[in-house]
Automatic annotation (TrEMBL):
GO biological process, one term: intracellular signal transduction
InterPro entries: DBL_dom_sf (IPR035899), DH_dom (IPR000219), FYVE_RhoGEF_PH (IPR051092), GDS_CDC24_CS (IPR001331)
Occurrences of domain DH (ranges): 3-179
Protein name (database record): DH domain-containing protein
Any one GO molecular function term: guanyl-nucleotide exchange factor activity
SMART domains for the chain: RhoGEF
Organism classification: Eukaryota, Metazoa, Ecdysozoa, Arthropoda, Crustacea
Native source organism of the sequence: Cherax quadricarinatus
Annotated SUPFAM superfamilies: DBL homology domain (DH-domain)
Amino acid sequence: MPLRDKVLQEIVSTEETYLKKLHILDKFFVKPCLEKGLLPEDIHIAIFGELAALQHMNEELYNALVSESENVGAAFLHLAPFLKVYSSYAKNYQKSINLLLEWERRSDKLRSWITGTESRPEVQAKLPSLLITPVQRVPRYRLLLGELLKHTPNDHPHFSSIAKAVEEVGEVAEHINRSISKAENLQRMLMIQRAFKRGHPSIIAPGRHLLKEGILHK
């Protein structure tokens, strides 16, 4: 299979995988958490509020990728203005995780429910790992589109639309990239925090980040 076709295939297949993760978030965490009243409504919105818009947007993108066939650039350009929702999500990610951790400490019921849901056969993923996937997705788009452009001849009918898509997606990705290292660092701190019994001691605090981890010899 030519390299260009492989990249096109990867764009569609990874989008399908990403959508499945968003669906898992919605079906097993977002909706049940609201229905069970495990979080106050305003806190629920602060943590999960932007996910519905992201899911709807990416369903549109996936349908466009499938219907546009090889004209991937056109599919991305159609939704490029809405990718700014990702910037907002990335910006609020740290606040959302802090809120989630705070309410896990407050509520044994919430903490137990999240742990149980994470271990379900249909889920098999940690909630923070699912929540960080949108932060990572747009930079991935930029890499895939850049690779597609590299394997598209200048005289190809879709070259200009792909080049424009690389430019527009790249602008959003630049903003998000600045948030990723902080988000991944926070995710690792959260994993360590959740390993402590009943959330004590608390290592999460504004401005604090993980410098190093390893085995401590006493």
